[in-house]
Backbone:
């Protein structure tokens, strides 16, 4: 079965087609362009280059969050539209899990980090090494300082991936031992990784009708929401 | 700091149009000023100064208006009804910050904690019915 996956969850965008765990093709960009204008031409181009017609796709996959508000909705809408028209099922893959799949097979702990702004990150923790990443911590929104504490406590060598990886590496490296920043080729969400994760979800039976796909939204820790509210009150009273 | 005493809506627009020439892609203008202070008039001037042909109006209901018909796009926000991070996230604000346009934010008081470090501050104060004191502060001004 062929799986078409797309990722538009952050500044980079990609689409990929896999078949029984083999990557047939992938298109990746990381420029400041509007995903709504680029992702479908990318899909069309990719399918043409690998000589696969859209109706041959058996399953659609998309990174469903966390990530950019607009980006997630672009990716989900594109996949919903194609899957609905063809009457095929969908898999929503956690953006953080997809990132961990980038290092699949390497014997390492992987900490995906997406920049949520305002000193917040979306993060989780995985152990790769086997055929698929093993989840050690749920997807969560936490403050940068909370992530630093977590990594200190964890103690082992950790690979940082995601659009917040470089920022965290530079901030934490002098205080947290054993942090590693992998090559940029492995650091960003990849549709190929989402497709591989979706293949495993399919075997587990985690397939949704297109109408049931929805963006995963991680709420910020209560304390951080109050922090913004307090600043707001001070601002309004001037 | 730039200070300008505007005697009319038209003068506010003219001043904003001239100020627009100093702006660069990625600039964020955090605007403060109450009802009728001339925030939308300033936005109209900015759009004209940036060479945009779009019609400018207050984004009270849509929360953001995009003016894209020109060289540098202008994203015009109204944060009057935005009161927390979750709401701010769902306006797409953080995505607009990544674009190479100018952001102009009315009622920026409401998102003080989320403004980027280099934001330019614009304050519009009412002096009398027609007169407004405009103050611009920022690293380059």
Residues:
């Amino acid at each position: 079965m062929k799986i078409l996956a797309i990722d538009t969850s952050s500044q980079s965008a990609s689409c990929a087609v896999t078949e029984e765990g083999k990557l047939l093709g992938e298109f990746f960009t990381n420029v400041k362009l509007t995903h709504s204008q680029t992702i479908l031409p990318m899909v069309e181009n990719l399918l043409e280059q690998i000589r696969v017609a859209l109706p041959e796709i058996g399953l659609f996959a998309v990174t469903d969050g966390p990530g950019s508000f607009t980006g997630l909705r672009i990716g989900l809408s594109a996949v919903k539209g194609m899957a609905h028209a063809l009457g095929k099922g969908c898999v929503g893959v956690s953006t953080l899990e997809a990132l961990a799949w980038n290092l699949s097979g390497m014997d390492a702990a992987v900490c995906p980090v997406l920049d949520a702004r305002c000193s917040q990150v979306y993060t989780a923790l995985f152990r790769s090494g086997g055929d698929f990443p093993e989840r050690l911590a749920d997807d969560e929104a936490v403050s940068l300082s909370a992530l630093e504490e977590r990594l200190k406590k964890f103690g082992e060598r950790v690979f940082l991936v995601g659009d917040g990886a470089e920022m965290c590496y530079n901030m934490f490296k002098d205080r947290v031992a054993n942090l590693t920043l992998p090559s940029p080729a492995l650091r960003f969400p990849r549709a190929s990784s989402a497709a591989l994760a979706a293949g495993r979800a399919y075997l587990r039976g985690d397939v949704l009708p297109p109408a049931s796909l929805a963006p995963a939204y991680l709420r910020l820790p209560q304390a951080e929401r109050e922090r913004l509210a307090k600043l707001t009150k001070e601002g309004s009273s001037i | 700091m730039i200070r300008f005493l505007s005697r009319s809506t038209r003068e506010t627009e003219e001043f904003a149009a001239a100020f627009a020439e100093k702006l660069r892609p990625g600039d964020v203008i955090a605007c403060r000023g109450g009802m009728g202070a001339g925030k939308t008039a300033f936005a109209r001037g900015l759009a004209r100064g940036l060479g945009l042909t779009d019609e400018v109006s207050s984004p009270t209901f849509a929360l953001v208006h995009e003016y894209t018909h020109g060289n540098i796009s202008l994203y015009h926000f109204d944060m009057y009804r935005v009161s927390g991070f979750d709401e701010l996230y769902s306006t797409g604000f953080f995505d607009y910050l990544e674009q190479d346009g100018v952001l102009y934010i009315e009622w920026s008081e409401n998102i003080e904690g989320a403004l980027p470090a280099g934001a330019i501050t614009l304050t519009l104060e009412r002096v009398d019915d027609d007169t407004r004191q405009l103050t611009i502060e920022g690293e380059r001004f």
Remarks:
- Residues 85 and 114 of chain B are 8 Å apart (CA to CA).
- Chain B touches chain A through 23 residues (CB under 8 Å).
